[in-house]
């Protein structure tokens, strides 16, 4: 009898709570939230001055100062650096050089393999958010646009540095400007013994940029070479302990013309990037003698027209 009484009491209490909940429920009017203003894509910029004042030797690592997630296998060096925007994977960020796409077709792990020194960059623009309507289907997380610096002054830059883990750094850049032409030549070398086993690296960069004034515009030409060799401990075999090693080479050729006559702008451009990759799974040869070779080429011809009109403003048309 005592147990039955307790059971009946619990049942009545629960029924009372349910009844009270039914009495307290209210129907709320729906609230509709709509967007009544279209905002342009927001871009974040790192200028040449910001790159020079940064304590980071790599211009790509300086992007960590912007809302861009960098995943680097070698701290403060762009030996292998992945870019991520708005939660995208490293494959979902488009990389541009003066507006021309340069993503590596083999893997986005090599997107930062671009033969540029800090002295060759005017500014870097980061456009977060889905930008596929402007740049194509591979700009899921956004885009990073690197703008070349024009050789417009007479200047010589020499930098030397050293740090922990046998790190050495040297940079030489010379620019010359005449009335209707300019040229800049840059060399950079970095090396380190590595912060742990099989993380040593060597990196060499060479870059040549020139500009020539022509009737109604200018002509530019650039050549670049980048060579890397680095320990790749468990880069692609996490947890297995493979002392891997990798060699990469990058060749870059870019040229273009900018013509502006009576409000009509014509900009033909061409970019070619060749990338070599050699990967050794086990540099000791004890567990594997696997050696992999890749070569990829990117050709980007581009033609753009723009016209100022009184009725419609600026009208543009492009082909890539």
Characterize the structure shown:
The chain is mainly beta. 10% of the residues lie in helices and 48% in strands. The chain has a single domain, classed as Ferric Hydroxamate Uptake Protein, Chain A, domain 1 (Beta Complex), CATH 2.170.130. The strands form 3 sheets. It has a 9-stranded antiparallel sheet, with no helix packed on it. A 5-stranded mixed sheet has the order 1-6-7-4-5. Strands 2-3 form a two-stranded antiparallel ribbon.
Elements, N to C (H/E): HEHEEEEEHEEEEEEEEEE
Number of domains: 1
**Class derived from helix and strand content:** mainly beta
**Distance from first to last alpha carbon:** 88 Å
CATH class, please? Mainly Beta
List the SSEs and their pairings:
Elements: H1 2-24, E1 44-47, H2 48-53, E2 69-72, E3 81-84, E4 93-97, E5 100-101, E6 121-128, H3 132-135, E7 142-148, E8 155-163, E9 167-177, E10 181-192, E11 201-214, E12 217-231, E13 245-261, E14 264-280, E15 291-309, E16 313-319
Parallel strand pairs: 4-7
Antiparallel strand pairs: 1-6, 2-3, 4-5, 6-7, 8-9, 9-10, 10-11, 11-12, 12-13, 13-14, 14-15, 15-16
Which key phrases capture this entry?
Ferric Hydroxamate Uptake Protein, Chain A, domain 1, mainly beta, five-stranded mixed beta sheet, 320 residues, 16 strands, nine-stranded antiparallel beta sheet
Give a quick summary of the entry.
The protein has 320 residues and is mostly beta strands. The protein is 10% helix and 48% strand. 28% of the residues are buried.
